[in-house]
Design brief:
Layout: E1 5-9, H1 14-23, E2 35-39, H2 50-55, H3 57-67, E3 73-76, H4 84-88, E4 95-97, H5 98-107, E5 113-117, H6 120-133, E6 139-144, H7 155-171, E7 177-180, H8 189-196, E8 200-201, H9 203-217
Parallel strand pairs: 1-2, 1-3, 3-4, 5-6, 5-7, 7-8
Helix pairs in contact: 5-9
Length: 222
């Protein structure tokens, strides 16, 4: 469908894609744009380094080019927003990244946002991007779980780490809203919000919600 939203998981984990697809379910409404989630098979099992980010740019560009006529908007579902500016040069249709979309959503829900990252190495990369977005003064802090993307499927361990990390961002850093810093965390959003008592932004949900508005309102680039 030409007005549908294509959500692209840039890593090759189908488990992450399924979690994203489930997270998008509340946004699938009668008469609204369809939401399709796909896996980038050329991607690594998890995007955990700058090299991983750089390596998926060309496959992402190819995926969007091949499907450009079939969709009304594109969402890059990785918290590093890989290739977002390169992909935007390919089409006048909206191209959104979940880091940008998730952070901008958080700014409407609280004064200071915290980010839960997967690995310590991710934090530096995310801080560069938050600086480029110009919102560093609204950042309470970012803390890692110490778990890779593949390990997020261990529900007990992951939720315990998320609860501890989220509580530290809330209590020690002053965050009044938290952004999940990886699409693979999607299935834990509601439980974490109930546990911590502050808004938790699942960035794929937040960004697909933005894309829905853009498609319905006919907003294009340029």
């Amino acid at each position: 469908m030409a007005d549908s939203i294509l959500v692209i998981n840039p890593n090759s984990s189908r488990a992450v894609t399924r979690a994203m697809d489930d997270a998008c379910e509340p946004l699938r409404i009668s008469g609204g744009p369809a939401i399709e989630c796909i896996t980038l098979d050329e991607g690594p099992p998890g995007i955990e380094t700058q090299r991983d980010v750089d390596g998926v740019v060309r496959p992402l560009m190819r995926a969007v080019s091949e499907r450009e006529k079939n969709h009304g908007a594109f969402v890059i579902a990785c918290f590093s927003d890989p290739g977002i500016h390169s992909v935007r040069e390919l089409t006048r249709k909206p191209v959104l990244g979940i880091a940008e979309g998730g952070i901008l959503t958080a700014l409407t829900l609280g004064q200071k946002f915290g980010v839960i990252a997967i690995l310590k190495a991710s934090v530096t990369r995310h801080l560069r991007y938050i600086g480029a977005l110009g919102v560093t003064d609204r950042l309470a802090g970012e803390l890692p779980l110490g778990l890779g993307v593949a390990e997020l499927s261990d529900e007990k361990k992951t939720f315990q780490r998320m609860r501890e990390t989220g509580a530290a961002l809330r209590d020690d850093h002053g965050a009044d809203v938290i952004v999940m810093g990886c699409a693979g965390m999607a299935s834990y959003r509601k439980r974490l919000q109930d546990e911590l008592g502050i808004p938790i932004v699942e960035p794929t949900q937040a960004t697909v919600a933005m894309a829905l508005g853009r498609v319905r309102l006919g907003w294009h680039i340029g």
